Here is the input.
Amino acid sequence: MRIDRIAEPWGTRTPYGPGEQWPTRVDSYLADGLTADDVDRWVQSATILHSNGDGLDIAVKDDRIVGVRGREVDRVNHGRLGPKDLYGWQANNSPDRLTRPLIRRDGELIECDWDTAMEAVVGRARELLDEQGPSAISFYTTGQLFLEEYYTLGLIAHGGIGTNHVDGNTRLCTATAAAALKETFACDGQPGSYTDIDHCDVIALYGHNMAETQTVLWTRVLDRLAGPNPPQVVCVDPRETPVARAATVHLAPRPGTNVMLMNALVHELIAHGWIDRDYVGAHSVGFDELEKQTRAYTPEVAAEVCDVPADRIREAARIIGSAERLLSTALQGFYQSHQATAAAVQINNIHVLRGMLGKPGCGILQMNGQPTAQNTREAGADGDLPAFRNWSNDSHIADLAQVWNVDPMQIPHYSPPTHIMQQLRYVEEGSIRFMYVTATNPAVSLPELARIRSLLSQDRLFLVVQDIFLSETAQLADVVLPAATWGEKTGTFTNVDRTVHLSEKAVEPPGEARSDLDILIDFAHRLGLEDKDGAPLVKWSDPEGAFEGWKECSRGRPCDYTGLSYDKLRGGSGIQWPCTDEHPDGTERIYVDGRFWAQPDYCESYGRDMVTGAPVEETEYKALNPTGRAVLKAAEYVPPHELPDQDFPFQLITGRTLYHFHTRTKTARAPQLHRAAPEVWVEMSASDAADRGFVEGDLLEVTTPRGRVRAKVRISGIRPGVLFLPFHYGYWDTAHGSAPEGDDVRAANELTLTDWDPVSKQPIFKTAAAQVQRIATSTGPAPAPTTTGSAPVSGQVPPTTGGDDALAHEHVGGHA
Ligand SMILES: Nc1nc2c(c(=O)[nH]1)N[C@H]1C(S)=C(S)[C@@H](COP(=O)(O)OP(=O)(O)OC[C@H]3O[C@@H](n4cnc5c(=O)[nH]c(N)nc54)[C@H](O)[C@@H]3O)O[C@H]1N2
Ligand SMILES: Nc1nc2c(c(=O)[nH]1)N[C@H]1C(S)=C(S)[C@@H](COP(=O)(O)OP(=O)(O)OC[C@H]3O[C@@H](n4cnc5c(=O)[nH]c(N)nc54)[C@H](O)[C@@H]3O)O[C@H]1N2
Ligand SMILES: [Mo]
Here is the structure.
C-alpha cells in the first residue's frame, strides 16, 4: 500500500491487545520511483535521527544510497519507520557535503589536504600541552557518533591527554536521564523495555512529546489504544501535543512547576495508601523523609502553583495509583528545567513506591533523545567514565587504568569531568585554549547564542570542528575536518531500552571525507599518545577492533557487552545489554526482584544533593545505603529563576517538531521534510492572541532580556501565558548564511538563558520570560505543521501533506 507519510506520520493502525505480540508492518521508501527490484543490495543498520533505534536496511544502487526499509525481525520496530527515517537519508547524497579539510588563512576557511589540517590540529595541541598542560584542551562531542568512536575519544582524552574537560551535547539532552537513574538506583541503565507498552494498563508521559519525537514508539502506543483493553494515558505537558490529545488525563502545568506537581502526585499515592509497603520496606531507603517532605504538597497547593485543577491532579493520581502495570516516560519538558533531576527522580519514586519495576508492563523510560546518546554515557565521552565506573571510587579508576594500561594518576578523577557550560566559562576566562568539537552544532544548540558566538570565535581559542556540512559552528572554526557519516562507516549504537544495533557501511563517503574513528585514531598517533609501556595508546585500527576493546572494558560492569559480537548482531534483531555468557540473548528487564547495582563498591555514583548538586561522600552513601537498595529522594519545589513580569509577561518554551531534527543539517536537505516545516513559527494560545488582536500568521518579534527572534504566529492549543518556538532554525540556509543580522533572526537560542539544573548540569531551555510585538500583519498562515503539536485551533489552515514524492510503502503483517 502507498501512503503519504508526511500527511500520516504514524501510518496505518495495527491494533493489538494486552500481552499480545505487536503485529509487524514493514515501511519502506525508495527515491525516484525505484522499486525493490532495482536495488543492488540491502545493508543492515538502524535509525539515526532520534533515540528509538528502529532496525532498518539501507537500499544501495550504483554505490549510492537510494532508500530505506524497516527490519521486520527487529524487536524495536517490527518493520516500522518514521517520517525522518523514511526521507532523512537523502542528506547523505547532498551536493554540499564537506569533501576536503578546511583551514583558516587570513580570516578565510580554505581547502587543504589532510596532512596540513591534521598537523595544524596536532601542532596546536602539542604547543598547549607543553605550555599549559592538559587542562588547556577540551573535547565536546555528541550523541550521534558510534560506540566505537566514543570509546576511542574517551581513551584519548582521559587516558592519553589526561584532560578532565570532556563532555557531549548529551549534556543538553540526556544528562538528566542519567542523573535521575544515578540518584535512585546509583547507576545509569534504563529499567524499562519497549515491550512494556505491550503489557501496561497505564502509560504516563512527563514532558515527553513521544508522538513527534519517537514516532515509531508512539505508533506502538496508538496500536494499543486502538486494540482491546487499551491502556489509560496520562500526559503532563503545557501544550496540546498529539500525546495530550490521546490522553485520558492531560495536565498542562505552568512551565517550570514539575516538582510541585510530582510532589502532589506522590502525596496522593501515600495519602491513599496506593503503595506497596512490602516492596518499599525490603528494597528501598528514604521513605520517611519522602513522606515528610511531600506531606504539605496537597492537590490544592499544587493547583495554585501549577495552575491545573486540583481534581484533575487527583484523577491522574488515582489512575497512577490504581495501575496494575504502570509504564512511565520522561523527556525534555522535565529534563531542560531548573529542577530537572528533582522532577525526574519523583517518577522513579512512584515506581519504587508502587513496587513496579522489573516486571512486564512496569517500566521506567528516562528517555534519551539522540540515537547514540546512551553510548556517549556508557563509553565515557561525556561527564561519565567508561562502563559506568565511579570517578570517586579509586578502585574503579585503578581498574580502568589496568584496562587501558596507563598509570591511574594519568586519568583525572579529582572531580567529575567538566560539563560544557563550565567548559565555556573556562573558555571565557582563557584557561581552555583548544576545543575539539565532533558532530554537534553549538552555535545553534547552546543557550544564549550571542555569548556562544563571541566565545567560539575568539582568536585565542583554537576551534576544531568535525562535521559533514559547513554548519554555523564549522563557519567559526580554525580547522574543519570532513567526516563520513551513518551509511558510510560501520559501528554499533544503543537505543533507549538498551538494544544494541550494528550499522554497517553501505557506500563510500564523498570526496576525502573520513570516518570519525579514523580521524580520532590518526589524531592520537600523530600526537604520539602511548600507554605506560611505550606502545601506542589506541590499539585498534578499525571499528570491530574498537568494539572488542570496549567489550573488555565493559566486562563485569552493568552495561556488559561481552556476550555480543559483530557477527551476532548481523542478520537478526538488535540485542539488549547486559549480554554475557550467562545471558547470551541479552536482558529484557533489569532490577528484577528488587536487585540493583547500588552497592557502595560497585555503584556508578554516590548521588548528589538535590538542591546544591554537591556530590555525596562515599562514607555518607555507605551509611545511607549499605546494602545497595533503591534510594527514595525527596525534593522541595523551587520556582523557576526567570519568571514573567510586566516587561516580559510570557513564559517561553522551546522544543521540536516531528519533521525536523535539531539544527536541520540533515532534515532541511530532505525536500519532503523541509516542505512540511520550512520556516520558524511561534505558538500562542487563542485567548492571548485575542487579547492582543493577533491573527494566525501575523509576524511577531519575540524578545527576552538576551535577544530577539522574528516568527509568524500559529494560534494553537498551547496553554495561555506560554509561547513555544521550535529550536531547529539556525541560519546556514538563509540568504546571508552567516551570523544573524537584520530582521531575519530566527534561532530560538538567541533568547534562552545561561543557567542549568544543579544536579545534572543540563541547561534550561524550557523557561524564559518573554515579550511579543507585532511587526507585520498576516499574509497567510504560519509555516507550521497541522499534524502535530502546532495544529491550528481554527480550520482556516491547509493541512500538511507531502505530495507525490512523499509516497512510501507499507506492508501490514508481512514482508516488503
Ligand atoms: N522529530 C524530532 N524527533 C526527535 C528530535 C528532533 O529534533 N526532532 N530530537 C531527539 C532528541 S535529541 C531529543 S532530546 C528528543 C526530545 O523529545 P521531547 O522531549 O519529546 O521533545 P521537546 O519538544 O524538546 O519537549 C517535549 C515537551 O516538553 C514540553 N514542556 C515544555 N516545558 C515544560 C514543562 O515545564 N513541564 C512539562 N511537563 N513539559 C514541558 C513541551 O511543550 C514539549 O511538548 O527528541 C528526539 N527525537
Ligand atoms: N532551545 C533549545 N535548544 C536545544 C534543545 C531544545 O529543546 N531547545 N535541545 C537540546 C538537545 S536535547 C540536543 S540533543 C541538542 C542538539 O544540538 P546539536 O547536536 O548541535 O544538533 P545537530 O543538528 O544534531 O548537530 C549535529 C551536527 O553533527 C553533524 N553530523 C551528523 N552526523 C555526523 C557524523 O557522523 N560525524 C560528524 N563528525 N558529524 C556529523 C551534523 O551535520 C550537525 O552539524 O540541542 C539542544 N538545544
Ligand atoms: Mo537531545
